[in-house]
Amino acid sequence: MLEDGTAVGVQPNVGCGRCASCALGLENRCPDHVDIGIQRDGGLAEWIVVPDGHVVPLDGFPFELAPSIEPLACCLHAVGMLDVAEGDLAVVVGAGTLGIIGMWALQAAGARVAVVQRSEARRRLAAELGADAVLEPGDDVAAALGALPAAALVTAPGVEALSVGDRPRRRRGRVHAFAGTPGGAPVDANLVHYRHLRLVGSTGSTVEDYRRARDLARSGAVPLDRMPSRTVALDEVPGSCWTPARIPGCSGSW
Fold first, then answer.
1. For the packed helices 207-219 and 69-81, what is the interaxial angle rounded to 10 degrees?
2. Neighbouring residues of 85: CB distance < 8 A, sequence distance ≥ 6
3. Phi/psi zone of residue 25: left (φ > 0), alpha (ψ -120 to 50 degrees), beta?
4. CB 35 within 8 A of CB 12
5. What sign does the CA torsion over 96, 98, 100, 102 have?
6. Does the global pTM surpass 0.70?
7. What is the mean pLDDT of the chain?
């Protein structure tokens, strides 16, 4: 039992507690999961009810950075599905908030990471925040990294972004469709077949991912404090861009 006044974070993906996914601790994959802040009241409600197991003490983590733990947890969950090992080469498609956090998550796993991004402003930001290489969509990823990458994290929506993630894979490469695409996207089955590719996807995270995200950020292995941000009062929220990091060009385009 936590004492009153304890600073906590909330892992928001709540499963049914009865299915096979929940039994494995993968509540984000529960077919009947409910997300706090989407199907249930979230952080802007006066009062919320949260299952005890989803309440995670911040243990000294800076309160103002705590909202970034959840997106980092989602990225860690995705990177875990890519089986990234120390020294692997990887590419992130899109340099929005989740693209940058995904880059840091891959680097924390030991990868060297190139970021592919159309927007020049976001390419500059990715370079400033630690990308090992930054490229435009048509650039040669293998030339930038020295070899074809083993894994791709596609954080930008749309058919074009997913195709950019598909193209530069080496044989037995892994591609994670991290962003949803309205209307779906065609997949080149021949590319998957002949290159022995593995195409995966995920949404959300687990409580264990959330705890690990807190610990990695607290240790400095993932520098969430470097993400551009600003603080707004509650009465300013409706008129402000709600993208968490206020990255240049926050209209949603990549």
1. 110
2. 109, 110
3. left
4. yes
5. negative
6. yes
7. 89
DSSP 103-151: HHHHHHTT-EEEEE-S-HHHHHHHHHTT-SEEE-TTS-HHHHHSS--SE
What's the one-letter identity of residue 254? W
**Per-residue model confidence as pLDDT tens digits over 10-69:** 999 999 999 999 999 999 999 999 999 999 998 888 899 999 999 999 998 999 999 999
The residue to which tokens 């990234």 are assigned: 84
What is the predicted pLDDT for the residue at 240?
62
pLDDT score of 245 more than 50: no
Query: Is the pLDDT score of 248 beyond 60?
Result: no
Predicted confidence (pLDDT) per residue in 202-221, tens digit: 999 999 999 999 999 999 99
Task: Output phi, psi for 49, to 5 deg.
Answer: -110, 130
Taking the domains of the chain in order of start, what are their residue ranges? 8-72+205-239, 85-201
The CATH T-level fold of domain 8-72+205-239 is Quinone Oxidoreductase; Chain A, domain 1 (3.90.180)
In the CATH scheme, what is the code of domain 85-201?
Answer: 3.40.50.720
- What's the rounded Cα separation, in Å, for the pair 97 and 112? 19
